Amino acid sequence: MRQFDLVVRGGTLATAAEVFEADIGVRDGRIAAIGLDLPAGTEEVSAKGMIVTPGGLDPHCHIEELSADGGVHEESFASGSAAALAGGTTAFICFLPQWKGHSLAASAPGYERRALQSRADYSFHQIITDPTPEVLEREVPALAARGVQSLKVFLTYDPLRLTDAEFLRVLATAKRLGLMVTVHCENFDAIGWRIEALLAAGQTDPIAHAWARPPVVEREATYRAIALAELVEQPIQVFHVSCEAAAAEIARAQARGVKVWGETCPQYLTLSHADLLKPDFEGAKFVCSPALREAGENERVWKRIQDGTLGVVSSDHCGFSFATAKRAPGAGGYGQGGATARADGTPAFNAIPNGVPGIETRLPVLFSEGVSKGRIDLPTFVRLSSANAASLFGLGGRKGTLAPGADADLVLWDPDAERTIHNGALHHAIDYTPWEGFAVKGWPSITIRRGEVAVRDGEVLAAPGSGRFLARG
Ligand code: URP
Ligand code: ZN
Ligand code: ZN
C-alpha cells in the first residue's frame, strides 16, 4: 500500500507566512507530509508552474437564505457550493436566519437540511434579529455547543436591525459564551431620513441607493459598534467595510488595543458609482450595502488591506437575479423604506434587493487585482482569502493552512492564465455577474477539497452532499 492517497507534486506553495517549493502528500483527506521528492501517491497531480494555496474560506455569504416574507435567495447549496469550488473556495460560512418575532428554532425551518446538499464544507453564523431571553439564554448556548460559534447582527435594514440596547445584550451573551460577533454597520435612521428626502425629490434610480447611504452613515455605525463592543469587552468583526472613513475607525480602535477586525469584499475594491449609473436599470445589478463608493475609494480600501486594518476579503455573495430585482421589490428582507414601484414597474432604489453574487469570482478577482497587479504578495493573499478567517472563526489549524494535520484543501493557481469573466461560464444560479467582461490574470485550475479533486479546468466533480458541516470551537 502506498504511503499517500494523493501527491501534489512540484508546486510553489504559498502559506500565510512564506512561499517555497515542495510536494504535498495527502492521506485520509488531510495533509500528511510536505517536502521535496515525496514518494509516489496512489494519485498524482502535477503542480509544475502552479502556485498552491490553501483552499479559500469565504466567511460571509448568503446561500438559500429564507426570509419571513417568503423571499428566498435563489442560490441553492448545490449551485452556490459548485460556484465556490470552481472559484477556489473549499469552505464557507453562511447564515442561519432568525425571523423577527420567532425563536431561532422556528425561523427558516429546514435550513440545515438544505445545507446538507453542499459540495463544499460549510458552517453557520447565527443571525440575531430578536434577542429575547429565551434566545440568548437557551437557544444560543445550545447552538454554540453544536459548533455554531459566531453571531451576526445588523444595525440597519427593516426588520432585521437591532437597537443599541439589543446589540449590547447580544454582545454580553457572546462574551459569556466566548463567541465572535459580526456586525453590519450602517445607521438605520440616517438612511431612512435620506431615503425620504430622495423619494420626495423624485429620485428613484439605482444610483440614489448610494446617495442614501453615504460613507458617514457607515462610519457612524462602525464607530458605535466598536464603542459598544469596547464597553462590553467583546471582540467583533466588522463586515463589508466599503470606505476609508469606516476603515479609519477600525484602525483607531485597533491602535488602542480593542479587539476589532475588519472585512471587505471585491466589490469595494473594484466597482464604483459608475456601475450604479449604468442605463436601462442595469445599475440595479450593483446595489449592495454598504453602497459602492465614488471613483478613487477602491484604492483607499486597498491601502487599508496593505496596512493590515482589513484582514479578510469575503464575497458577501447574495443570490438575487437581475430578473428578480426588476419585478420583486425588497426580496429577501435586505431593503429599507417600503416597496416603491416606478412608472415602468421596476422598483425604486430603496426596494431593489441588496447584495451582489460573487462567491466564484471572489478569489480570481482578488488574485488578479491583488497579486498579479502587485498590490499584495502571496502570503497576504492567503491571509485575506482563508487564513485570517480560519483563525477568527475557530477553524485555525484545520482550514487556511498548508501543514501536516490540516484538511487537504488546496488550490492550484495558474498565475499566467488570462481570462475574461462571463456569467455564462460561472457555476452560480444567478443570471448575471457584476464582473461581466472583467479581465483577470491568474486562475484556479484545480481545486482539491479534503484530498479529492473537486474541480478540474472548470468542471465541478464534487457531488452535492459531499461537503461537511464544520463544527467550530
Ligand atoms: O447588500 C448586501 N450586503 N446584502 C446582503 C446582506 C448583508 O448586508 O450582508
Ligand atoms: Zn451586511
Ligand atoms: Zn452579507
From TrEMBL:
Homology family: Belongs to the metallo-dependent hydrolases superfamily. Hydantoinase/dihydropyrimidinase family.
GO molecular function terms noted in the UniProt entry: dihydropyrimidinase activity
PANTHER family the record matches: COLLAPSIN RESPONSE MEDIATOR PROTEIN, HYDRANTOINASE/DIHYDROPYRIMIDINASE FAMILY MEMBER
- Could you tell me which species this protein originates from? Teichococcus aerophilus
Q: Name one Pfam family in it.
A: Amidohydro_1
Q: Domain Amidohydrolase-related, which positions?
A: 51-453
Taxonomic lineage is: Bacteria, Pseudomonadati, Pseudomonadota, Alphaproteobacteria, Acetobacterales
InterPro entries per record? Amidohydro-rel, Hydantoinase/dihydroPyrase, Metal-dep_hydrolase_composite, Metal_Hydrolase, Metallo-dep_Hydrolases_sf
Q: What is this protein called?
A: Dihydropyrimidinase
Enumerate the cofactors the protein uses: Zn(2+)
Source taxon at top rank: Bacteria
**Keyword annotations:** Hydrolase, Metal-binding
Assigned EC number: 3.5.2.2
